[in-house]
Design brief:
Elements: H1 2-7, H2 10-19, H3 24-42, E1 45-48, H4 50-65, E2 77-81, H5 108-115, E3 119-124, H6 158-165, E4 171-175, H7 182-188, E5 191-194, E6 215-219, H8 222-232, H9 250-256, E7 263-267, H10 277-292, E8 296-300, H11 308-323, H12 345-356, H13 359-372, H14 378-401, E9 404-408, H15 424-428, H16 435-440, E10 444-451, E11 458-464, H17 470-488
Parallel strand pairs: 2-3, 2-4, 7-8, 7-9
Antiparallel strand pairs: 1-3, 4-6, 5-6, 5-10, 9-11, 10-11
Helix pairs in contact: 3-4, 8-9, 9-17, 11-13, 11-14
The structure holds glutamine.
Length: about 500
Amino acid sequence: MTSELISLTAAETASKVASGEVSAVEVANAHLDRIGAVDERVHAFLYVDREGALAAADAVDKARAAGEQLSPLAGVPLALKDVMTQKGIPTTCGSKILEGWRPPYDATVTARLKAAGVVILGKTNMDEFAMGSSTEHSAYGPTHNPWDLDRIPGGSGGGSAAAVAAFEAPLAIGTDTGGSIRQPAAVTGTVGVKPTYGAVSRYGLVALASSLDQAGPCSRTVLDAALLQSVIAGHDPMDSTSVTDPVPDVVGAALRADVKGLKIGIVRELGGEGYQAGVRQRFDEAVTILEGLGAEIVEVSCPHFPYALAAYYLILPSECSSNLAKFDGVRFGIRVGEGDGDPSIEQVMGRTRAAGFGDETIRRIMLGTYALSAGYYDAYYGQAQKVRTLIQRDFAAAFAQADVLISPTAPTTAFKLGEKLDDPLAMYLNDVATIPANLAGIPGMSLPVGLAPEDGLPVGLQIMAPALADDRLYNVGAALEAALLQTWGHPILQEAPSL
Ligand code: GLN
C-alpha cells in the first residue's frame, strides 16, 4: 500500500482523495513511513512535522466527509524548502545562525498551501541562505542524490529535489535566485519551475537577493508542477514586487501539450563547449523530438550571456550582504560570546556572525560589501547592472524570433560530493545556463530528457519564455514529456528507487 501511494502523481493522489478511494491521512502516513525508511540516507529533510501533517490531512478528510468542495491539491503531501517561513516550525535556511528560530508567521506561499489543503510534511535541506549548487553548504550536512548517494542533488534546493526524486513527497517548494530550482531538478531527474519574477509572493521567503529570488514548484511531472504553481501564484499585497497581472492558465497549458507551429529557439551561447557529451546528446535528441511534433526550430544568439555569470556574482553578493545584515544575534537565532569578558554590542554581533555563518556565506557578504563600497560601486555594482540590461535586451531580441528558448539546464550531470567544494568558481559554473533567466526576471522550467549514456545519470532540458508567459513552459514541457514517454519509456521516475 505504501509503495503504491508514494508512486502516485500529485494529480492522481488528489483525485483519489477527492473520490474517497484513499484518505488523506493514509497518504500522509505512507509518505511519513517512506521518510522514516530512507531519509537517514538521503537527508532531504531538516525537520519532519509528523503531527502537523497528520492534522492537516485529517482536516481534508473531515472536509470531504462534510461534503465540502476540495481544492485541486487537497490531501497531497509536500516538502517545503527551509527558506520559507511556517508558523511555529523551525526555519533555519540551512544556517547555524537561525538555529532554534521558530517564525511567528506563515509565508504567503505557506498560507496558500495550507488553505488549499496541501499537507506540509516538513522542511527541506538547502545550501546556507540558498547559496550553492550542491547542498553541501548546509550547516546541517549535505543531502544525497537518490540516483547515487555519493553524488550531489544540486543546490541550493537539493533537499526539495531529492525529497521528490526519492518519493518522500510528490511535490516540493523550491526557490530560484540563479538556478536553485532548475539545476537540482536537472540532476535528480525531476521537474522544477522558476515562475516569472513577481508571479509568486516573496513575503515570508527569507531573502537572498531580492531582485532575483523566486519561489516555484518541484514535482515528478509537468502537470503536477502546473497544479502547484496555480495554487501558490497570484498577486499578494504583502509583497511590493508581486505582479498584479492575472495568473496564466498553466494547468490548461499542461493539458494542451501541443507544439505544432510553435517557434523554439536554441540559444547558441548555452551549449557546446564545456557541456558534457551525454548532456548534449540527450538535448539534441529532445530537439529532434520537438521538431517531429511540429515545432519549428531556430537558432538564436544572445551575445551578452557569457557575461551573465560575472554580473550575477556582483549583483547577488551585493544584495545578499545587505539582506543578511539583519542576522546579528539580536533579533533571530543564536547569540554568541555575550558572557565572554565585557563585550560591546558590536563585538557580540561580530562573534555571532563569525560563529553562525559558513564560509560561502561569509565569502559572498565580503564580496558584496566590497562591490557596494564608495569608490567601487560604479566600477562593480553599477557595471553589473548595465550588463543585466544588456541581457534583458538579448532576451527581448531572441523572443522576437522564437516563442520559447531552450538549452541544457546544467552543463553536467550530478557530480560527486566533495568534488567542487573547495573550488567556488567550478561550483558557480553549474548555473551558467540558468542565471540569465533570473537576471531578466523571465520564467524557466527544467524537465528530464533521459540519462547520459556515459554515467547513467539524469539530464535536464531548460525551457524559457517571456515574462508572464509561464503557460508556454508548461505547454512545451508537457508535449515533450508525453513524447519522451512514448519514444523510450520516460526518463521520469515512475517507481520509487530502492535506497
Ligand atoms: N547556485 C546559485 C548560487 O549559488 C544559485 C542559488 C539560488 O538560486 N538560490 O547563487
